Amino acid sequence: MQRVALKEKRKLEIIRVACKLFSEKGYYNTTIPDIAQALGMSVGNLYNYFESKEELAKEIMLTVSRWVGEKLKKVNEMKVSVKEKIYEFTKAFFETALSEPELINYFLRVFLVNREIFKEGCEGFACVGEVITEVMVLLSDGVERGELRNQNFFPAFTTIMGPLGGMVFLYHEGVLDKPLMEYTDEVAENIWNALKL
Questions:
Q1: Which structural domains are found in the chain, ordered by start?
Q2: pTM, to two decimals
């Protein structure tokens, strides 16, 4: 049992380091030896955890989706208005972008930009299923409560995730004139106004 826990811990360490390197150097400019060196392990040992760079890239995306999805699920479970949930959703996303920048950077700079890597096993929304599910829950809850307009999922989804990803991207580019968290109210209000009934 302890051996399995140690292996999982090491696997998560590999995911975090690879995520950071892929985000900083780009997917194609990062090699398995680069990742192994950053971890202080041999290339052969790294291949015991992941068979290829492509497999590692997909596993990172699944892990990022699971972590962000878990945070959003907690927001969906709150007994508050949908407007308040949108605020909490925004806050949780921005907090994740600040506390674990490599995760959101990976999504913005690797997953969205290098779609050819994710052709097999990550088609469509397959690798971001947890996040998609929680956004669907938020939207359908809002429609059922009569707080949000009933509309096609994809425009509604991009109305939420587009501004969040865009603000994080601008933050990492050093363009924003205030700290990211100071935009939470305004961004959440804009999302609410775009979706409300």
A1: 52-195 (1.10.357.10)
A2: 0.86
